[in-house]
Amino acid sequence: MVDDLGVLFRAPREVRRIVSLVPSLTEAVACTAPDLLVGATDWCVEPPGLDVVRVGGTKNPDLRKVVELAPDLVLANFEENREADLDALRTAGVPVWVTMIRTLPEALTSLERMLAACGQGTPAWLAGARVAWADVLRELPPSGAVAVVPVWRRPWMVLGRDTFAGDLLARLGVGNVYARAAERYPKVSVEEMLHRRPDLVVLPDEPYAFSATDGPETFPGLPVALVSGRHLEWYGPSLTEARRVLSASLEHSGPASSPSP
């Protein structure tokens, strides 16, 4: 068996203890086989009330604490986690399963393979996600609008090429101004964003917490959609409702007010 990166993975005979280093994957396991989860990062906030040992951040986990939890399996992601940390865990004898997710179809397949590595079948939420997105899985719909999608400010960063969030928006009929950028998360100026003449600005509430009072004022006159970062950027149980939630937010986008003098 190999993980999403093609790394040979020798699965334990029985997975009883899992540490997850990715919020999306934590939620996926917690909603499928909660008794297996013994550790997660400080950023793993779903489902609410999750009671497991916290092992630090996604980029700076406490590796000693992870090893002390004696997991049968650690779950990670090629984008969220540092390869040096994953190599250190492998050196310590801890099996690590790494996901690579850049599109919705990749997410659905990757999650099913990951859960199988955990000894689990296909959960109802994953089957429900396939149904929710079934008509746009094989082919992208035509783009009705082209958006710029900031994910950070100071400095400003936007969604670029090959991102899961960009792919999800494309399946909702929203194109990405920076879909062909050289980088996945390019740093750009506000002037450059406006020069691209987007039809819409999409502002998720994570990783930067854009809100009605922090972000829209930068784009006066342009329609701005404030969206849930969990539904746009997470791959897991949130996918069952993400299409409905995001579509509603996009439909209710309106022009931003002019900045205060």
Give an overview in words.
- This protein is of the alpha/beta class and 261 residues long.
- It has nine helices and twelve strands.
- The protein has a five-stranded parallel beta sheet with strand order 3-2-1-4-5, sandwiched between helices. A five-stranded mixed beta sheet has the order 9-6-10-11-12. The protein has a two-stranded antiparallel ribbon with strand order 7-8.
- α5 packs parallel to α9.
- The longest helix is centred in the middle third of the chain and has 14 residues, at 104-117.
Quickly describe the structure.
The chain is 30% helix and 16% strand. A hairpin with a 4-residue loop joins strand 7 and strand 8.
Order of helices and strands: EHEEHEHEHHEEEHEHEEHHE
How many helix segments? 9
Shape call: globular
Strand content: 15-25%
Counted beta strands = 12
Gyration radius, in Å = 19 Å
Given the helix and strand composition, which structural class is it?
Answer: alpha/beta
- Stretches with pLDDT under 50, minimum 5 residues: 257-261
Keyword list:
five-stranded parallel beta sheet, five-stranded mixed beta sheet, 30% helix
Could you give the topology of this structure?
Elements: E1 18-20, H1 23-30, E2 37-40, E3 53-54, H2 63-68, E4 73-77, H3 83-91, E5 96-99, H4 104-117, H5 124-132, E6 145-148, E7 150-152, E8 157-158, H6 164-170, E9 174-176, H7 190-195, E10 200-204, E11 223-227, H8 229-233, H9 239-251, E12 254-255
Parallel strand pairs: 1-2, 1-4, 2-3, 4-5, 6-9, 6-10, 10-11
Antiparallel strand pairs: 7-8, 11-12
Helix pairs in contact: 5-9
